Amino acid sequence: MANVRHPDCAIRSLAHEAKRRLREGAYDRELGQSLPQGASPAQKRIYIRLKELLDKGEEVVNPIRQLADAELLARLPHDERQRYVFQLAADYTAMKRELDCRLAAK
Fold first, then answer.
1. Are the beta carbons of 35 and 99 closer than 8 angstroms?
2. pTM to 2 decimal places
3. What are 26-37's pLDDT values in tens digits?
């Protein structure tokens, strides 16, 4: 039975991604190229951005400033801005830890 009530739920997107990987035979990729499993879409964007910066040889000095969406921050009210920054900091910490673990395992 199809899930017609929640067409954009996280489980559905994970299932589509798994089916795509299975079709393409992408389960045998290197660890550095695959995205962290169980990460939210925001965390995946941060992970990709961190990986790009690392590949370029750039250093992340101010992660909030470098990773935040400036336009979004400009239009958010103060309390929403704080919530966004705290969530961004938590996501950055988790993805930085994941990236460091993957690099150490190589």
1. no
2. 0.65
3. 655 543 457 787
